[in-house]
Design brief:
Layout lengths: L2 H14 L5 H21 L1 E6 L4 H4 L5 E3 L1 H11 L3 E5 L2 H10 L4 E3 L15 H10 L5 E4 L4 H4 L4 E3 L4 H7 L4 E5 L2 H11 L2 E4 L17 E4 L12 H10 L4 E4 L5 H6 L2 E2 L2 H10 L4 E5 L3 H9 L4 E2 L15 H10 L8 H17 L1
């Protein structure tokens, strides 16, 4: 281990001693040092989502955060190469907002069950059937779906996007639970399309309007239950429970706080609580614990996203070395998708 790698290893060990075994840290430090050397040589930018494994999260990225925040930072940086340590829809968004950059995804297998729950053909059929109802799509969708949308949203600004349209009925696609949680937040009724993409014959009355949801779900967040919360509170009465808005509505209602990954991190940063249960992808709990070694993360219901787990330091090194798995978004898709994203960003 050379001097530079030894220094990197010591930095990683200081941060990750409680969450990553020493033997693994030594191996990961060697790989991370190679990546950092290549990053400098190629003038590349490396982005890491909050769900990345700790050894990657705390070694090679220029920026860490949620998917939209990272894409905005990439657009501002203007680097010739962007390596997005996340999943495909995130890398696509970075490409849409940074069209002149070469955007690389370390693994071609890093998909998303939620993004794959709705296709562009599904949305075309929906728009033909209900042309007068505005369509909001979650950023957790592929570029061709964004391109057919009126506006995109994040988990953090979905309520503001819904309200900004001043429409009695809006589609909020594709996450069924996010749609229900935002309906509760905005005082609207939730109605779901059937599997053929059709509304019920009779819609309920609602003075505040209706949110129409799809049937997509995140394969991680849909598995959390109120029993997980009850079990945690029974064992640790002082635990603060944080749920992602992609969790079932009853889970969100039983939690102390609900928000996207960046919002969860801010909550932990400012909270006087000492114990937390994060109902989201479990690698994030390790990353938060590494930043707050004086706190405790309860691990009674940890779930790892198989798609995020495809992104490793080893694959990131190969992607940057070979400049492989480049993300391409054709201009006829990128241009309208960019408009939908820009409308969302303008809302804040």
């Amino acid at each position: 281990m050379n001097q530079h790698t030894q220094r990197l290893y010591q930095q990683m060990k200081k941060r990750l001693d409680k969450v990553v075994p020493d033997a693994e840290l030594r191996l990961k430090a060697e790989i991370a040092a190679e990546i950092l050397k290549l990053k400098k040589e190629k003038n590349a930018l490396i982005l890491a989502h909050n769900y990345m494994e700790p050894a990657l999260f705390y070694s090679i990225p220029d920026y860490c955060g949620d998917s939209l925040d990272l894409s905005r930072r990439a657009a501002a940086a203007g680097k010739p190469i962007i390596v997005f340590c996340g999943v495909r829809f995130m890398a696509e968004t970075a490409k849409i907002l940074s069209p002149a950059s070469k955007v690389l995804l370390p693994s071609p297998r890093a998909g998303c069950s939620l993004a794959e729950s709705i296709s562009a053909d599904d949305l075309r059929a929906l728009r033909r059937r209900y042309p007068d109802i505005p369509v909001i799509t979650y950023v957790n969708t592929y570029a061709d779906v964004k391109a057919l949308s009126d506006v995109c949203c994040t988990s953090g600004n979905a309520a503001a996007v819904v309200e900004s349209l001043h429409a009695p009925r809006v589609f909020l696609l594709p996450d069924a639970f996010l749609a229900a949680n935002i309906a509760a937040e905005t005082g609207r009724r939730i109605v779901y399309l059937d599997r053929d993409g059709r509304l019920p014959d009779h819609l309920p009355e609602s003075p505040n309007g209706i949110i129409i949801g799809w049937h997509g779900k995140c394969e991680v967040h849909e598995r959390f239950t109120t029993s997980d919360i009850e079990n945690a509170r029974r064992q640790f009465p002082d635990v603060a429970v944080l749920a992602h808005p992609e969790c079932p509505p009853e889970v969100v209602a039983a939690s102390d706080f609900s928000g996207g990954t960046n919002a969860m991190i801010r909550y932990v940063d400012s909270s006087p609580a000492r114990r937390f249960l994060l109902l989201t992808e479990c690698a994030m709990a390790d990353n938060v614990l590494a930043a707050h070694p004086d706190r405790e993360m309860i691990r009674i219901c940890s779930l790892r996203c198989p798609h995020m787990n495809e992104i490793t330091l080893e694959d990131t090194l190969e992607a940057l070395r070979r400049e492989q798995y480049e993300i391409q978004v054709p201009q006829p898709i990128a241009d309208p998708a960019r408009l939908a994203l820009e409308k969302m960003i303008a809302i804040g």
